[in-house]
């Protein structure tokens, strides 16, 4: 079993900023796990930014649809 890579996930929603490192199989999986954490903390919904260790950035809506750059 290969180790899962680490992703930096963040959420900006109004005046709320929440950030967390998450180990996941890919950027969308990381966004999904992050969304679950944010929902559990009762934070507002917003776009989720995901960055991998190479610096590639991905962005997803709250419903996990990719946001076009």
Strand and helix layout:
Elements: E1 6-13, E2 16-23, H1 27-40, E3 48-51, E4 57-60
Antiparallel strand pairs: 1-2, 1-3, 3-4
Overview of the molecule:
- It is a single chain.
- This protein is an alpha+beta fold.
- The chain has one domain.
- Strands 2-1-3-4 form a 4-stranded antiparallel β-sheet, with helices on one face.
- Strand 3 and strand 4 form a beta hairpin.
- The mean pLDDT is 89.
Summarize the structure.
The chain has one helix at residues 27-40; strands at residues 6-13, 16-23, 48-51, 57-60. By secondary structure, it is an alpha+beta fold.
Task: Give the N-to-C terminal Cα separation.
Answer: 33 Å
* DSSP summary: helix tally: 1
Low-confidence stretches: none
Largest sheet: 4 strands, antiparallel
Shape: globular
Structurally, how many domains make up the residues?
1
Give the strand line-up of the largest sheet.
Answer: 2-1-3-4
The SS-based structural class is alpha+beta
Beta percentage is 25-35%
- Gyration radius from CA atoms, angstroms: 11 Å
* SSE arrangement, N to C: EEHEE
Oligomer: single chain
Number of strands: 4
Q: Can you give the helix content as a percent range?
A: 10-25%
The chain-level mean pLDDT equals 89
């Amino acid at each position: 079993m290969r180790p899962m890579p680490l992703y930096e996930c963040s959420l900006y929603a109004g005046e709320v900023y929440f950030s967390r490192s998450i180990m996941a199989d890919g950027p969308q999986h990381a966004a999904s796990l992050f969304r679950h954490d944010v929902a559990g903390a009762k934070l507002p919904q917003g776009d989720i930014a995901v960055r991998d260790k190479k610096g590639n950035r991905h962005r997803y809506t709250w419903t996990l649809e990719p946001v076009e750059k």
